[in-house]
C-alpha cells in the first residue's frame, strides 16, 4: 500500500539506482526536531526508455590504443578557443592520423553537468546511460529537458504546490502562435487530459547512444541496435521495473539515418523494439554542402562571422583539412546528396546563363539513364576535371593507405560503402515517426553548389568547358564564402576564364537544405513540422523544438501497451542513509526507511531519520 504524503516532506531526494537498476534514495541522519522530511518521488514500475542519437561530429571519440580523446567538440567559449588553437596548428597529416575510423572509438568520458533542480537523474546515472558519449553543449539541454518533463511532469511534484509544467500546459492547449512556429503538416490536436494522465503510467529514463561518425551508418545502426538490447536488458534484470518492451528514439541530423537503418535491421531480425521515433533536422536526401567542404573547407557567413570562422578551424578550414578525414569516412560521405536529391544541383554558370549542371544522367542506345551523382560527381578528381570533388593529393598525407594502392582507391572504397548504404536505406521510415526540419530564409543553406565565371562576357561557345583542367591544383581554392565578396577563384588552362564558388542559395537551417529536410513529409510518417528560428547544430537548444519534441513523444506513448496488460512485479524502492546498505525492493528489512513505489500520480515520501 502506498504511504501517504507527509506534508512536512519538502526536501526532495534525488532518484538513484543500485547495480541491478533498482531505485534507491539516499538521505542523511538528522535530529527529530528537524521538521522537514525527505521527499522521495517513486517512479512508475513500467518503463519506456528514451534513446537520444546525435548527429555527425556530435559523438565524443578517443583512440582505441591509449584511450586519449581525439574528438571532443568544445563546450563553452573557453574550450572553444582552446580547441581552435589546437586545430589551427594541426597539420593534415596529424589530423588524418588522429581522426581515422579504424583507430578510434566512442569516448564515454565527455562532460556531464546535472543542475541541482534535476532529481530524476544524477551525474553517475547519466554516465551509465551514455550521456558522456555525446556533445554536452549540443545535446545536454534536450536530454535534461526530456528527463525532467517526462518523469516529473509537474513543478514542485509531490507537494501541495504541484502544477503542470509549461510544456504540458502548452501541449494541452496549443495556441495559434505555437502552431505558427511548428507549422504541422496535418492535424495537430491538443493532448487531452486522458492522454496526459496516460503519461503517468510509465517511467521514461533518457539514454544516449554515441557512435563513431566516421564509420558507415550501417555500422552505427548496429551499435544503436546493441544499445537498445542493452537498455531493455538493464530494466529486465531489475527487480523493480517492468519494461514495456520497446524504446522511443529521438535523433539529430545524421542520427536520423542511423535510427532509420536500425529500425530496418530490427524488422529484418524479427524484433519489435521501437515504439516510435522523433527525427530532428534530418538530411533525408543529403546536403550539397559536403561537396563544397571537400573543395573549399568549412564555410562561414561573412567577415564578421567570428563564431563561424572559429568553428571552421575546428571542423576543417580548407580542402586539405577536410579531405584527409572525410575521404576515409563512409559516414560523412553518406551525407552527400543521394540519387533522390533533385538533379542538376552542381551548376556551372556564365553570369546568369547555365553552362552545365550535374548530375543529369545520359542517354544510352536511346534509353535515358537516371542521374548518378556517384559516377558523375563524387567519382571525379580535380586531376580529371576542374570541378571534381576530390583532390587526390590531399587524401593520404599520413601515408596510411595500403602500399601499392593509389590514395584515390581508399576514397573509392569509402564512397562505395556510402552508395550501398544509400541504396539500402532508400526513403523508408518507421511508421510511428514524427519529424521537424528547418525552413528558414534567415538560415541560408546550400540547395546546390554554383560555380560562376568571374567575368560574365566569357565565350560560352568555347568547347568542353566542363572538362577543362585548372592551371594549378590549388589545395585551398576557397576557405570561405564571404558576404563582402572575398572569394578565391580558379583559372582554367589555356582559357581566359576564372570561376568563383558562390554562396548559399536557399532556405533551410544553415546546413540541411529545405528540400532534403522536407522530403521526410512524403515518406509515410505521422506528422512533420516545418520550423524556423534555429541553426542546424543548435536546433535542440530552441524552445519551440524542445516543446515540440516532448509533444511528439507524448503522442507516441499513446500507442504503448496498456499497463494492465503488463506484469506488475515491482512494488517497492528503497531509501537509505549514507553508510547503510541499499537493499533490493524484494528485501527491505535492512533498509532504515522503505518507500513504496507507485505511479507518479501517487508520489511517495520517506522520512529523514
What are the main properties of this structure?
single chain; 609 residues; alpha/beta; Rossmann fold; 3 domains; five-stranded mixed beta sheet; 18% strand
Radius of gyration from the CA trace? 27 Å
The CATH class of the largest domain is identified as Alpha Beta
Average of per-residue pLDDT values: 85
**How much of the polypeptide forms β-strand, as a percent range?**
15-25%
- With strands numbered from the N-terminus, the spatial order across the biggest sheet is 12-6-14-15-20-26
Largest pleated sheet: 6 strands, parallel
CATH topology (level 3) name of the largest domain = Rossmann fold
Shape: globular
Tally of structural domains: 3
Query: Structural class from helices and strands?
Result: alpha/beta
CATH architectural group of the largest domain: 3-Layer(aba) Sandwich
Low-confidence stretches: 473-488, 577-609
Distance between the termini: 21 Å
The residue fraction in helices comes out at 25-40%
The number of distinct β-strands equals 28
Q: Given the structure, what is the number of helices?
A: 17
Amino acid at each position: 500500500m502506498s504511504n501517504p504524503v507527509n506534508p512536512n516532506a519538502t526536501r526532495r531526494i534525488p532518484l538513484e539506482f543500485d547495480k541491478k537498476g533498482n531505485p534507491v534514495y539516499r538521505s542523511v541522519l538528522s535530529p527529530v526536531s528537524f521538521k522537514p522530511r525527505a521527499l522521495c518521488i517513486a517512479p512508475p514500475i513500467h518503463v519506456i526508455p528514451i534513446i537520444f542519437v546525435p548527429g555527425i561530429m556530435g559523438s565524443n571519440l578517443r583512440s582505441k590504443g591509449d584511450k586519449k580523446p581525439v574528438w571532443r567538440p568544445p563546450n563553452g567559449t573557453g574550450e572553444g578557443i582552446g580547441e581552435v588553437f589546437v586545430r589551427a596548428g594541426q597539420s593534415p597529416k596529424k589530423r588524418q592520423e588522429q581522426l581515422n575510423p579504424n583507430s578510434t572509438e566512442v569516448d564515454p568520458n565527455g562532460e556531464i553537468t546535472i543542475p541541482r533542480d534535476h532529481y530524476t537523474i544524477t551525474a553517475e546515472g547519466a554516465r551509465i546511460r551514455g550521456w558522456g558519449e555525446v556533445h554536452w553543449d549540443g545535446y545536454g539541454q534536450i536530454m535534461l529537458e526530456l528527463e525532467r518533463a517526462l518523469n516529473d511532469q509537474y513543478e514542485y511534484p509531490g507537494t501541495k504546490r504541484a502544477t503542470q509544467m509549461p510544456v504540458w500546459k502548452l501541449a494541452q492547449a496549443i495556441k495559434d502562435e505555437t502552431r505558427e512556429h511548428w507549422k504541422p503538416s496535418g492535424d495537430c490536436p491538443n493532448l487531452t487530459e486522458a492522454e496526459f494522465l496516460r503519461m503517468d503510467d510509465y517511467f521514461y529514463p533518457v539514454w544516449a547512444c554515441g557512435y563513431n561518425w566516421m564509420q558507415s551508418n550501417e555500422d552505427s545502426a548496429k551499435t544503436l541496435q546493441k544499445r537498445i538490447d542493452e537498455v531493455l536488458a538493464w530494466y529486465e534484470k531489475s527487480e523493480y521495473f517492468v519494461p514495456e518492451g520497446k524504446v522511443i528514439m529521438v535523433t539529430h541530423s545524421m542520427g536520423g539515418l542511423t535510427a532509420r537503418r536500425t529500425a530496418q535491421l530490427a524488422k529484418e531480425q524479427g524484433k519489435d523494439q521501437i515504439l516510435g521515433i522523433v527525427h530532428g533536422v534530418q538530411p533525408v536526401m543529403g546536403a550539397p554542402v559536403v561537396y563544397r567542404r571537400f573543395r573549399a573547407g568549412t564555410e562561414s557567413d561573412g567577415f564578421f562571422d567570428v563564431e563561424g570562422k572559429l568553428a571552421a578551424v575546428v571542423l576543417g578550414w580548407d580542402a586539405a583539412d577536410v579531405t584527409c578525414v572525410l575521404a576515409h569516412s563512409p559516414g560523412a560521405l553518406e551525407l552527400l546528396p543521394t540519387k533522390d536529391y533533385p538533379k542538376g544541383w552542381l551548376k556551372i554558370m556564365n553570369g546568369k546563363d547555365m553552362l552545365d549542371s550535374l548530375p543529369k544522367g545520359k542517354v544510352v542506345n536511346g534509353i535515358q539513364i537516371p542521374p548518378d551523382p556517384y559516377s558523375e560527381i563524387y567519382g571525379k578528381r580535380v586531376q580529371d576535371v576542374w570541378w571534381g570533388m576530390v583532390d587526390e593529393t590531399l587524401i593520404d598525407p599520413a601515408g596510411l593507405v595500403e602500399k601499392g594502392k593509389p590514395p584515390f582507391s581508399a576514397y573509392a572504397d569509402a564512397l562505395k560503402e556510402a552508395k550501398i548504404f544509400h541504396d539500402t536505406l532508400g526513403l523508408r521510415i518507421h511508421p510511428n515517426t514524427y519529424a521537424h526540419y528547418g525552413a528558414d530564409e534567415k538560415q541560408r543553406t546550400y540547395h546546390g553548389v554554383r560555380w560562376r565565371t568571374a567575368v560574365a562576357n566569357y565565350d560560352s561557345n568555347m568547347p568542353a568547358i566542363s572538362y577543362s583542367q585548372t592551371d594549378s591544383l590549388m589545395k585551398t581554392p576557397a576557405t570561405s564564402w564571404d558576404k563582402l565578396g572575398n572569394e578565391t577563384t580558379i583559372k582554367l588552362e589555356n582559357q581566359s576564364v576564372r570561376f568563383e564558388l558562390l554562396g548559399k542559395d536557399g532556405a533551410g537551417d544553415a546546413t540541411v537544405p529545405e528540400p532534403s529536410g522536407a522530403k521526410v513529409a512524403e515518406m509515410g510518417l505521422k506528422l512533420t513540422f516545418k520550423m524556423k528560428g534555429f541553426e542546424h547544430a543548435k536546433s535542440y537548444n530552441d524552445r519551440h523544438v524542445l516543446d515540440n519534441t516532448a509533444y511528439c513523444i507524448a503522442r507516441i506513448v499513446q500507442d504503448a501497451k496498456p499497463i494492465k496488460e503488463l506484469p506488475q512485479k515491482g512494488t517497492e524502492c528503497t531509501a537509505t542513509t549514507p553508510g547503510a546498505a541499499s537493499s533490493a525492493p524484494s528485501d527491505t528489512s535492512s533498509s532504515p526507511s522503505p518507500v513504496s513505489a507507485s505511479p507518479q500520480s501517487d508520489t511517495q515520501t520517506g522520512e529523514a531519520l
